[in-house]
């Protein structure tokens, strides 16, 4: 006997509601050009990538400048196989970890400064 699991895509509204639960930057750092991606915009970007381009389901995704994780976590909710978020700001990574707990999902987070040479500080953590 073979059991087949069919994954029903999350509806746009469900995705947006999940992303609305996430915390954003309390004090964005201007020098890092930080801003929070709204749940509405994030849901549109991710749902379009998922439904029209097949760019999310089962794929591995790297999120450069992951910030608080709206896009990373939304991609996980839509069924990516793996997400790695790269972020220069430790405070943003702390918020990303909090948001992972809120949604009860995981994103691999890498604290790094890509503007440095190969001896740059890279610290990998699991949210």
From TrEMBL:
It comes from the Eukaryota. This is rRNA N6-adenosine-methyltransferase METTL5-like. SUPFAM superfamilies: S-adenosyl-L-methionine-dependent methyltransferases (SSF53335). Pfam families: PrmA (PF06325). It comes from Neodiprion lecontei (Redheaded pine sawfly).
